[in-house]
Design goal:
The protein is an alpha/beta fold. Helix content is 17%, strand content 33%.
Length: 146
Protein backbone atom coordinates (compact mmCIF):
# COMPACT_ATOMS: atom_id res chain seq x y z
CA UNK A 1 0.00 0.00 0.00
CA UNK A 2 1.31 3.44 -0.90
CA UNK A 3 1.08 6.30 1.56
CA UNK A 4 0.28 9.67 -0.02
CA UNK A 5 3.03 12.26 0.29
CA UNK A 6 1.91 15.22 2.36
CA UNK A 7 3.35 18.68 1.73
CA UNK A 8 5.55 20.07 4.48
CA UNK A 9 3.77 22.58 6.71
CA UNK A 10 4.63 26.19 5.89
CA UNK A 11 7.59 27.36 7.90
CA UNK A 12 8.76 23.85 8.79
CA UNK A 13 12.37 22.81 8.30
CA UNK A 14 11.35 20.65 5.33
CA UNK A 15 9.63 23.55 3.58
CA UNK A 16 12.36 26.15 4.19
CA UNK A 17 15.68 24.31 4.36
CA UNK A 18 15.56 22.22 1.18
CA UNK A 19 15.55 23.13 -2.47
CA UNK A 20 16.49 26.29 -4.32
CA UNK A 21 15.60 29.69 -2.91
CA UNK A 22 15.22 33.21 -4.22
CA UNK A 23 15.44 34.43 -7.79
CA UNK A 24 17.03 31.21 -9.03
CA UNK A 25 14.06 28.96 -8.25
CA UNK A 26 11.56 27.49 -10.71
CA UNK A 27 8.38 29.56 -10.59
CA UNK A 28 6.24 28.28 -13.46
CA UNK A 29 5.79 26.09 -16.52
CA UNK A 30 6.14 27.90 -19.83
CA UNK A 31 6.20 25.23 -22.53
CA UNK A 32 5.74 21.47 -22.86
CA UNK A 33 7.72 19.92 -25.73
CA UNK A 34 5.85 17.45 -27.94
CA UNK A 35 7.87 15.61 -30.62
CA UNK A 36 6.20 15.52 -34.05
CA UNK A 37 7.24 13.91 -37.33
CA UNK A 38 5.87 16.71 -39.55
CA UNK A 39 5.67 20.19 -38.03
CA UNK A 40 3.32 21.57 -40.70
CA UNK A 41 0.88 18.66 -40.30
CA UNK A 42 1.05 18.99 -36.50
CA UNK A 43 0.47 22.74 -36.70
CA UNK A 44 -2.62 22.14 -38.83
CA UNK A 45 -3.97 19.68 -36.22
CA UNK A 46 -3.27 21.77 -33.13
CA UNK A 47 -4.57 25.01 -34.67
CA UNK A 48 -7.23 23.72 -37.08
CA UNK A 49 -8.65 20.81 -35.05
CA UNK A 50 -7.91 21.71 -31.42
CA UNK A 51 -8.38 25.46 -31.91
CA UNK A 52 -5.03 26.48 -30.42
CA UNK A 53 -3.39 29.76 -31.39
CA UNK A 54 0.16 30.10 -32.72
CA UNK A 55 2.36 31.88 -30.20
CA UNK A 56 5.66 31.51 -32.06
CA UNK A 57 6.87 30.02 -35.34
CA UNK A 58 10.52 30.73 -36.16
CA UNK A 59 13.26 28.83 -38.00
CA UNK A 60 15.56 26.87 -35.69
CA UNK A 61 18.15 24.97 -37.74
CA UNK A 62 19.73 23.58 -34.54
CA UNK A 63 16.64 21.38 -34.14
CA UNK A 64 16.35 20.60 -37.83
CA UNK A 65 13.14 22.57 -38.24
CA UNK A 66 11.30 25.41 -36.52
CA UNK A 67 10.48 26.43 -32.98
CA UNK A 68 6.68 26.39 -32.94
CA UNK A 69 4.64 27.16 -29.85
CA UNK A 70 0.86 26.79 -29.79
CA UNK A 71 -1.57 27.17 -26.89
CA UNK A 72 -5.25 27.38 -26.06
CA UNK A 73 -6.45 30.96 -26.44
CA UNK A 74 -5.70 32.75 -23.18
CA UNK A 75 -3.75 29.77 -21.81
CA UNK A 76 -0.51 30.37 -19.96
CA UNK A 77 1.41 27.20 -20.85
CA UNK A 78 2.18 26.45 -24.48
CA UNK A 79 2.99 23.29 -26.43
CA UNK A 80 6.21 23.36 -28.47
CA UNK A 81 5.88 21.21 -31.59
CA UNK A 82 9.49 20.03 -31.81
CA UNK A 83 10.93 17.85 -34.57
CA UNK A 84 11.00 14.20 -33.51
CA UNK A 85 14.39 12.52 -33.45
CA UNK A 86 16.06 9.33 -32.29
CA UNK A 87 16.40 10.74 -28.78
CA UNK A 88 12.97 12.38 -28.70
CA UNK A 89 10.61 10.11 -30.64
CA UNK A 90 6.96 10.89 -31.25
CA UNK A 91 4.13 8.48 -30.48
CA UNK A 92 4.34 8.43 -26.70
CA UNK A 93 2.17 9.28 -23.72
CA UNK A 94 3.00 12.92 -23.08
CA UNK A 95 1.55 13.15 -19.56
CA UNK A 96 -0.21 16.46 -20.22
CA UNK A 97 -3.76 17.02 -19.03
CA UNK A 98 -5.65 19.74 -20.87
CA UNK A 99 -8.80 21.22 -19.34
CA UNK A 100 -12.23 22.01 -20.70
CA UNK A 101 -15.53 23.30 -19.35
CA UNK A 102 -17.44 20.41 -20.98
CA UNK A 103 -15.60 17.10 -21.46
CA UNK A 104 -18.58 15.34 -23.06
CA UNK A 105 -19.06 18.04 -25.70
CA UNK A 106 -15.34 18.19 -26.52
CA UNK A 107 -15.14 14.39 -26.66
CA UNK A 108 -18.01 14.32 -29.16
CA UNK A 109 -16.55 17.18 -31.21
CA UNK A 110 -13.07 15.63 -31.46
CA UNK A 111 -14.48 12.21 -32.34
CA UNK A 112 -16.61 13.81 -35.08
CA UNK A 113 -13.45 15.48 -36.43
CA UNK A 114 -11.78 12.08 -36.74
CA UNK A 115 -9.48 12.42 -33.74
CA UNK A 116 -8.59 9.16 -31.96
CA UNK A 117 -10.36 9.55 -28.59
CA UNK A 118 -10.65 7.17 -25.67
CA UNK A 119 -13.75 6.42 -23.65
CA UNK A 120 -15.34 9.34 -21.77
CA UNK A 121 -14.78 8.42 -18.13
CA UNK A 122 -17.28 9.66 -15.57
CA UNK A 123 -16.52 8.24 -12.14
CA UNK A 124 -18.30 9.43 -8.96
CA UNK A 125 -16.38 12.23 -7.25
CA UNK A 126 -13.90 12.66 -10.13
CA UNK A 127 -14.20 15.16 -12.99
CA UNK A 128 -15.17 13.68 -16.38
CA UNK A 129 -12.12 12.96 -18.55
CA UNK A 130 -10.91 11.20 -21.68
CA UNK A 131 -7.73 10.56 -23.62
CA UNK A 132 -6.92 11.48 -27.20
CA UNK A 133 -3.99 11.23 -29.58
CA UNK A 134 -2.55 13.66 -32.09
CA UNK A 135 -1.65 12.52 -35.64
CA UNK A 136 1.76 11.32 -34.36
CA UNK A 137 0.00 9.16 -31.72
CA UNK A 138 1.25 11.37 -28.86
CA UNK A 139 -1.20 10.73 -26.03
CA UNK A 140 -2.96 13.42 -23.98
CA UNK A 141 -5.83 13.60 -21.52
CA UNK A 142 -8.61 16.16 -21.15
CA UNK A 143 -10.16 16.80 -17.73
CA UNK A 144 -13.28 18.86 -17.10
CA UNK A 145 -12.73 21.74 -14.72
CA UNK A 146 -15.09 23.61 -12.42
Amino acid sequence: MTTPVQPAPAGSAASTDSGVHGAGRIDGIHTIGVPVSDQDHALEFYVGTLGFEVRMDVPLPQLGGRWIEVAPSGGGTSVALIPASGTTPSGREVGVRFTTADAAALHQSLAAAGVQVGELLAWPGVPPMFSFADPDRNGFEVVQHG
